[in-house]
Amino acid sequence: MPPSLDIRGDIGAAQLAFYVPIAVITFFFTVRHAFEKDAGYFFLFFFSLARIAGGALIIAAELVQPSNINLFIAAYILFPAGLALLMLSFLGFVGLAGQHTVSEYRQTTYILRLIAFFAVLALALSIAGGLLGTHVNPDANTGLILRRVAAGIYAGSYLLIVFATFLSWSYNDLMRSYRRNLLKGLMVALLPLGVRVAYAVLEAWSSSDIFGSEPSSNPNLPQFNPVTGNYIIYLVMGLIMEYLVVLLCLFLSTIGMRRRRHRRHRH
């Protein structure tokens, strides 16, 4: 009997369907903005690629015979690592909202760069922590520590993102209306982003390994594991929350810019 997809394989297929259009749209805007990282589209494009790759890897891992454990490992590492790209994208849109105003201030620039540094650090630790404890390197204890440190950095970075967003809002009277509306949308997007970060923290404590085969002794935490835990929680707190952030950032930024060009054309 040929292999078939389980529920997580079906979710992986859905990721392809949802993120391929996002990747196309963000690539267009990335090129249009001359690959400026401050615009947000640059990192959103690579986040989309990460989710497409993750979905494709899960599908391939479940269908390829004989089974290749490396495909599973790559997919499981991409899930927490991708959160850093989403955060970097969010920072870019905060910078875009405050362009020519608060984003030009030294204090704001310093805060945004500091958060970006922490996000990149969490990305590196997530990848390293995911590899350690597998056949690549059997040092499972160090891998667990790195994954939990990365989760802690994600949580701290989120708090700094909230601070930076509200700091930008304190200068909203200096912003043009379309940038102010973008910032309002980003403040709404903080909610699903916060849920996603909370899931990342719970995931790090749900199991001692990335496969979910060594669950936490706490009876509630294993359900937050993206591999062996409750797939509905994984879908809602993980993937759907991410997608809400993506849609809010993309919709509000593109609609705002279109309205600005329309007003310029009229005048």
From TrEMBL:
The chain crosses the membrane at residues 12-29, 41-61, 73-98, 110-131, 151-170, 182-202, 231-257. The keyword DNA-binding does not apply. Pfam families: DUF7702 (PF24800). It comes from Gymnopus androsaceus JB14. Keywords: Membrane, Transmembrane, Transmembrane helix. This is DUF7702 domain-containing protein. Residues 5-252 form the DUF7702 domain. The keyword rRNA-binding does not apply.
